[in-house]
Amino acid sequence: MASIKTIKVLVGSQNPVKISAAKSVIARYFPEYQIDCQGLHAPSGVPEQPLGEEQTRLGAQNRVSYLQQHHDADFFCAMEGGAHQFSYGPATFAYVVVANAHYTSVNRSSNLPLPQPIYNALMAGEELGPVMDRVFNTTNIKQQGGAIGLLTNHVATRESTYTQALTLAMAPFLHPHLYIEKASDEV
């Protein structure tokens, strides 16, 4: 009897929503493998509530870099939620980073419009999860459906947003010959 091959995935967070999203995406792309997905503490190097796209992206990249420096795995993943005051209004979003030994892929989720008073609380130094818990009278929503679940009446969730962004971020690992840049190659 042939043994089942395993893919080891490390996620730069112990949040079960992020771990579940990473495991489900990798499992869909590699159904012939057993997925060993673990969440580990990995510092983001940015504030607890990142503001702006650059800070949010950097947080996810820092988490993956930390994992790569301290652990061995087939894939390293991180998801960082942030918020920004865009010209059309405030919104929350996430950056995701997926890496292996050869390539790092960065992607961003879609925006969830935020009510201005909620964004103002973030600007005052609060984190989105606790603000949403207070506004909606919930407990630890960030490890459940998140602000996305609450503001969409649970039609979308934090995990569904991470799953979509991670699914798209996997493209370079499925077609590496198209993404590994060679100076003399042309499409």
TrEMBL record:
Protein EC: 3.6.1.73
Keyword list, A-Z: Hydrolase, Magnesium, Manganese, Metal-binding, Nucleotide metabolism, Nucleotide-binding
Binding residues annotated for substrate, in chain numbering: 72-73
GO molecular function: ITPase activity; metal ion binding; nucleotide binding
Catalysed reactions, as listed in the record: ITP + H2O = IDP + phosphate + H(+); XTP + H2O = XDP + phosphate + H(+)
Cofactor binding remark: Binds 1 divalent metal cation per subunit; can use either Mg(2+) or Mn(2+).
UniProt-listed GO biological process terms: nucleotide metabolic process; thiamine metabolic process
Signal peptide: none
Pfam families from the UniProt entry: NTPase_I-T
Domain Non-canonical purine NTP phosphatase/PRRC1, first and last residues per copy: 12-174
SUPFAM superfamilies xrefs: ITPase-like
Residue positions binding Mg(2+): 72
Needed cofactors: Mn(2+); Mg(2+)
Keyword Lyase carried by entry: no
Family according to the record: Belongs to the YjjX NTPase family.
Quaternary data: Homodimer.
NCBIfam families: inosine/xanthosine triphosphatase, PRK05074.1
Listed PANTHER family: NON-CANONICAL PURINE NTP PHOSPHATASE_PRRC1 DOMAIN-CONTAINING PROTEIN, PTHR34699
Function according to Swiss-Prot or TrEMBL: Phosphatase that hydrolyzes non-canonical purine nucleotides such as XTP and ITP to their respective diphosphate derivatives. Probably excludes non-canonical purines from DNA/RNA precursor pool, thus preventing their incorporation into DNA/RNA and avoiding chromosomal lesions.
Name of this chain's protein: Inosine/xanthosine triphosphatase
